[in-house]
Automatic annotation (TrEMBL):
GO molecular function, one term: GTP binding
InterPro entries in the cross-refs: EF-G-like_DII, EFTu-like_2, IF2_assoc_dom_bac, IF2_II, IF2_N, P-loop_NTPase, Small_GTP-bd, T_Tr_GTP-bd_dom
Positions bound to GTP: 383-390, 430-434, 484-487
Comp. bias regions, Basic and acidic residues: 83-154, 201-223
CDD domains found in the cross-reference section: IF2_eIF5B, IF2_mtIF2_II, mtIF2_IVc
HAMAP family membership: IF_2_B (MF_00100_B)
Name the UniProt record assigns to this protein: Translation initiation factor IF-2
Species in which this protein is naturally found: Tistlia consotensis USBA 355
Biased composition (Low complexity): 155-181, 188-200
Length: 875
C-alpha cells in the first residue's frame, strides 16, 4: 500500500510540473463531471439502507462564432436548474422520503399553488362582473326613475290621474338580485391566508377545502337556482337554434350569459305528441268509411298473411273462418277459394294469381313487320335407319360424320349450317332413324321449316319412314322426298313413288304437290338439284325473324362434358344470342360463357336459324326445352325453380309407389319382380330414347325400375347407390372414372358399357326375360294297365302292370285313371321288374308299381306316366 501511495504521489507531482497549454488563447475552466448523492433503500421488516450514488454527466460542446467551442445552452440551463433544485431547502416533512416520493409531493404542492391562483383569478373576475352588473342595474333604475318622473309631470300637466310608482314594484327584486354579493367577505377569507404557510398545512388545505369555502359555494348555488327559477320559461327551440345543454350545470355556466340558452323539448314530450297524433288518426279512421283494399290471393296462403294483406286482425279472420265452418289456426294455410270468400266477407276486393304467373311476359310481344329480316331455312333430314341420311348430309357438307358414328347409325341430333355457292345459308338437323329415337324425330319436326324424307331406292318405305311422315304431317311442314341410293343395283325409284301414295303423299309427276328428287350421297348425283329445290321452297315460305331482340330458341341436344360442364346445342329462332346473356332453358338457368358453331369455332353471337353450342348452364336441360333470354339472374332463377318444382311434382305423381297393402299383395302373389337399373348416357336425347325403350319392356310380371338416370360419366355416388340397391349400371357412350371403377370392383357392382342402342335394348330384354317364371310343359311318356293288385306287408299295395304304350320311368309324374276319370295325380314311388329296381320299362313288358301316399288302386285302372319340363320365357 505504501509503495502504491508513493507511486501515486510521484505521478501527481510530475503532472503538476507540466504546464497546461491550449493551441489558441482561451480561458480554461474546469467543472465537476461527477455528482454524488445518497439514496435510501427500503427492505422488508422496516429495514433501510443508505447507498452512495455517483452520477456522471457528459458535457457537449460545439464550435461557435470565431471557432470558439461553446457548451450547449439547453444542457447548461438544465444543469443550472438541477443545481438550484438541489440547493433549494427541503421542508422538514419531506426529508425522510425517498426521492421519487419527494418529487411527487413537490409536484402536488406546485399543482395546489397553481389551482389556488386560478381560483383567486376566477373569483376576482366574478366579483368584477357582479360589480359591473350592479352598476348597470343602478343606471337602469335611475333611468327608469327619471322616465317615471317625466311621465308624472306630463300627466300632471295634462290633468290625468297618476300611475302607480314603478319603484314600488321593482323594490322586492332588489334584495334577490343583490343577494349573491353578500357572502363576499366569507369567500374572500381563504384567499387572504399567507402563502408562506408550512408545507404540511399547505398539503392539507389542498387536499380538503375549508368549511367556509364549501358553505360559500353552496350558498352561491342556491342563489343561482333561485335566480334561474324566477325567470320566465324558455320557449321551445326552433329550427336552426343551438342544441340543449349537455352535462351538469356549474356555477360558471349559470353565471355566464352564453350559458343561458333556451332549452328544447325533451324526447319524452316529442314521443307523447306523436302518440297523440296517432290516436287522433285512429279516431278519424274509425269515424270515417272503411278503406277497401285490393288483396292478392295466391293458390295457397296462410291465415296470418291473409290478415296482413287485408290490414285486419288475425283473430277476426280466424273467427270468420270458424263461421264458415273452416277450423284453421293463424299459421295454417287455406286454399284460394276460401281466402277469396274471406276477403269478400271483410268487404275488400280479391285478385287471384297463380304460381304460373312468373312466366307471364317471358317471351315478349310479337314482332313488328318492319323489324323482320329474312333468315335461313331450317331443314330436318328424317327417314328409316341405314337409308343414308347422315351420308347425304356429309355429301352436302363435304364431311365424313357417318364414319365416326358407332355402328354406322346416328344416335344424336346433329345441327349443321352450310353455305351454298349462291351465298345463301341452310341449317340442317340430322335425326336418328332407329325406332328408339321417336322423340328426337318429333322434336326435329317441330322446330323445322322443311322436312327431307330420305328413302332408300332399294329398300322402299319402312317403319321409321312411316313414323317420320306422321311427324311431319303433325308439324304441318312441307315434305321433300329424297330417293337415295339410286346408284345401287336393284334400285327402283318408281316403286318408292308408288308406295308414297299409300300414305297420302302424291309426287309431282303423278299430279300431286310432293317434290321427289333422285340423289346419290355416294356419287353426289342430284345434290345441286336438291339444294335448288330447298332454296325455292324456303323462298315460297318467306321465312323472316327479328334479330334485334332478346334471343329465343330450342334446345336440340344437351350433354355433360368434362372440363366444360353442361353443354346444350341450341337452335336460335328469334333474336340474337350473345355471350353474357342470362337465360332460362327448361328447369335450368345460366349465363352464356361461350358460343361454339357447328365447326367448333368460338363466336360472339348467333342470329336466327343458327345452331350453336352454349356453355354456362347450371345443369343439363331436356332436349326440346325452350331457351329464353331474360333481363336478370333473379328472374331466371325464379322461373327455373318454378319449373323444377313442377317437374318434380309430375314425376312423383307418375311414379307413385301405391299403398302398403297393394305392395304386400303384389309380393305375396309373386308379381313384384323388378330389375333396378341406373342409366347414364352421353347426351339427353340418347338417355331419353333408352328410358323410353326400357319402359316399353315392362309387363305385368316384370318391369325395369329406373333408380337414377342422368347425363355424364359414372361417378362414385352412382356406384354407391347401385351397391345399396343391388342395381345394374348401364353406361351408354360414357365411362366410369378411376375411383368409381375401383369401388365397383371392390363391391362387385355390375357396370355394362354400350355404344349401340339396339345392343343395349336386346340385352335388357333378355335380362328381363330371365326374371319371368319359366313355362312348364308336360311331356307324355306312356300308359300302363293294372292287371293285378298285391298287398305286401310293410310295403302296402303294389300294382302289377303291363306297359301298353310308350315308356314308364321311375320318379316320373303319374295320373291314375278310372273309367277315363283322373282319381289321383302324384309321383311314382317304386318301379320293379321281378325283384329288381329298374329305371324304366318299355312297351310290352310287365312291371310292378307303387304310388307315394296313395293305395286306392284296383284292377283295370290305367296309369298315365308323364314328365314336366320348364321352358324359359322371353319378352
Amino acid at each position: 500500500m505504501r509503495v502504491l501511495e508513493d507511486m501515486s504521489t510521484n505521478n501527481e507531482s510530475q503532472e503538476a510540473k507540466k504546464p497546461l497549454t491550449l493551441n489558441r488563447p482561451k480561458k480554461l475552466e474546469l467543472k465537476k463531471t461527477v455528482e454524488t448523492g445518497q439514496v435510501r433503500q427500503s427492505f422488508s421488516h422496516g429495514r433501510t439502507k443508505t447507498v452512495q450514488v455517483e452520477v456522471k454527466r457528459k458535457r457537449t460542446y460545439r464550435p461557435g462564432d470565431g471557432g470558439k467551442m461553446t457548451a450547449v445552452a439547453e444542457e447548461a440551463q438544465a444543469e443550472e436548474a438541477e443545481a438550484e433544485a438541489r440547493q433549494r431547502p427541503i421542508p422538514e416533512a419531506l426529508r425522510n422520503l425517498r426521492p421519487e416520493e419527494r418529487e411527487a409531493r413537490m409536484r402536488a404542492l406546485e399543482q395546489a399553488k397553481e389551482d389556488t391562483a386560478r381560483r383567486e383569478a376566477e373569483e376576482a373576475e366574478r366579483r368584477q362582473r357582479e360589480a359591473e352588473e350592479a352598476e348597470r342595474r343602478r343606471l337602469e333604475a335611475e333611468e327608469r326613475a327619471r322616465r317615471e318622473a317625466d311621465e308624472a309631470a306630463r300627466r300632471a300637466a295634462a290633468g290625468l290621474p297618476e300611475a302607480p310608482a314603478a319603484a314600488e314594484v321593482a323594490e322586492p327584486e332588489a334584495p334577490a338580485e343583490a343577494g349573491p354579493a353578500e357572502p363576499e367577505p366569507e369567500a374572500a377569507e381563504p384567499a387572504g391566508e399567507p402563502a408562506a404557510a408550512p408545507v404540511a398545512r399547505e398539503v392539507e388545505r389542498v387536499a380538503r377545502p375549508t368549511p367556509k369555502t364549501r358553505e360559500a359555494e353552496q350558498e352561491e348555488a342556491r342563489l343561482v337556482k333561485k335566480k334561474v327559477a324566477a325567470k320566465a320559461p324558455a320557449p321551445s327551440r326552433a329550427k336552426g337554434e343551438p342544441k340543449r345543454r349537455q352535462g351538469k350545470l356549474t356555477i360558471s355556466q349559470a353565471l355566464d350569459d352564453e350559458g343561458n340558452e333556451d332549452r328544447i323539448r325533451s324526447l319524452a314530450a316529442v314521443r307523447r305528441q306523436r302518440e297523440r297524433e296517432k290516436q287522433r288518426a285512429r279516431e278519424q279512421l274509425q269515424s270515417g268509411q272503411k278503406i277497401v283494399r285490393e288483396v292478392t290471393i295466391p293458390e295457397a296462403i296462410t291465415v296470418q298473411e291473409l290478415a296482413n294483406r287485408m290490414a285486419e286482425r288475425g283473430g277476426e279472420v280466424v273467427k270468420t273462418l270458424m263461421k264458415m265452418g273452416v277450423m284453421a289456426t293463424i299459421t295454417q294455410s287455406i286454399d284460394a277459394d276460401t281466402a277469396e270468400l274471406v276477403v269478400e266477407e271483410f268487404g275488400h276486393r280479391s285478385k287471384r294469381v297463380s304460381a304460373q304467373d312468373v312466366e307471364i311476359g317471358l317471351r315478349g310481344s310479337a314482332d313488328d313487320d318492319a323489324l323482320l329480316r329474312p333468315r335461313a331455312p331450317v331443314v330436318t333430314v328424317m327417314g328409316h335407319v341405314d337409308h343414308g341420311k347422315t351420308s347425304l348430309l356429309d355429301a352436302l357438307r363435304k364431311t365424313d360424320v357417318a364414319a365416326h358414328e358407332a355402328g354406322g347409325i346416328t344416335q344424336h341430333i346433329g345441327a349443321y349450317q352450310i353455305e351454298v355457292p349462291s351465298g345463301d345459308k341452310i341449317t340442317f338437323l340430322d335425326t336418328p332413324g332407329h325406332a328408339a329415337f321417336s322423340e328426337m324425330r318429333s322434336r326435329g319436326a317441330n322446330v323445322t321449316d322443311i322436312v327431307i324424307l330420305v328413302v332408300a331406292a332399294d329398300d322402299g318405305i319402312m317403319a321409321q319412314t312411316i313414323e317420320a311422315i306422321n311427324h311431319a304431317k303433325a308439324a304441318g311442314v312441307p315434305i321433300i322426298v329424297a330417293i337415295n341410293k339410286i346408284d345401287v343395283p336393284g334400285a327402283n325409284p318408281n316403286k318408292v313413288k308408288q308406295a308414297l301414295l299409300q300414305h297420302e303423299l302424291v309426287p309431282e309427276d303423278m299430279g300431286g304437290d310432293v317434290i321427289c328428287v333422285e340423289v346419290s350421297a355416294k356419287t353426289r348425283q342430284g345434290l345441286d338439284n336438291l339444294l335448288d329445290i330447298l332454296l325455292l321452297q324456303a323462298e315460297l315460305l318467306e321465312l323472316k325473324a327479328n334479330p334485334e331482340r332478346n334471343a329465343e330458341g330450342t334446345v336440340v341436344e344437351s350433354k355433360l362434358e368434362q372440363g366444360r360442364g353442361a353443354v346444350a346445342t341450341v337452335l336460335v329462332q328469334r333474336g340474337t344470342l350473345k355471350v353474357g346473356d342470362i337465360f332460362v332453358a327448361g328447369a335450368e338457368s345460366g349465363r352464356v360463357r361461350a358460343l361454339l358453331n357447328d365447326r367448333g369455332e368460338r363466336v360472339e353471337s348467333a342470329g336466327p336459324s343458327v345452331p350453336v353450342e352454349v356453355l354456362g348452364l347450371s345443369g343439363t336441360p331436356e332436349a326440346g326445352d325452350d331457351l329464353v333470354v331474360v333481363e336478370d339472374e333473379a328472374r331466371a332463377r325464379e322461373i327455373a325453380s318454378f319449373r323444377a318444382d313442377k317437374k318434380k311434382t309430375a314425376t312423383m305423381a307418375t311414379q307413385g309407389r301405391g299403398t302398403l297393402e297393394q305392395m304386400l299383395s303384389a309380393i305375396r302373389e309373386g308379381e313384384a319382380k323388378t330389375m333396378p337399373l341406373i342409366v347414364k348416357a352421353d347426351v339427353h336425347g340418347s338417355l331419353e330414347a333408352i328410358l323410353g325403350a326400357l319402359e316399353k319392356m315392362a309387363t305385368e310380371e316384370v318391369r325395369p325400375e329406373i333408380l337414377h338416370s342422368a347425363v355424364g360419366g359414372i361417378n362414385e355416388s352412382d356406384v354407391t347407390l347401385a351397391r345399396a340397391s343391388g342395381a345394374m349400371i348401364l353406361a351408354f357412350n360414357v365411362r366410369a372414372n378411376a375411383q368409381a371403377r375401383d369401388l365397383a370392383k371392390r363391391d362387385g357392382v355390375d357396370i355394362r358399357y354400350y355404344s349401340i342402342i339396339y345392343e343395349l335394348i336386346d340385352e335388357m330384354r333378355k335380362a328381363l326375360g330371365g326374371l319371368l317364371a319359366p313355362e312348364q310343359r308336360e311331356v307324355f311318356l306312356g300308359y300302363a294297365e293294372i292287371r293285378e293288385v298285391f298287398n305286401i306287408t310293410k310295403v302296402g299295395k303294389v300294382a302289377g302292370c303291363m306297359v301298353t304304350e310308350g315308356t314308364v320311368k321311375r320318379g316320373a309324374k303319374v295320373r291314375l285313371l278310372r273309367d277315363d276319370v283322373v282319381v289321383h295325380a302324384g309321383t311314382l314311388k317304386t318301379l320293379k321288374r321281378f325283384k329288381d329296381e329298374v329305371r324304366e320299362v318299355q312297351q310290352g313288358y310287365e312291371c310292378g308299381m307303387a304310388f307315394e301316399h296313395y293305395e286306392d288302386i284296383a284292377v283295370g285302372d290305367r296309369i298315365e306316366c308323364y314328365e314336366v319340363e320348364e321352358v324359359a320365357r322371353t319378352l
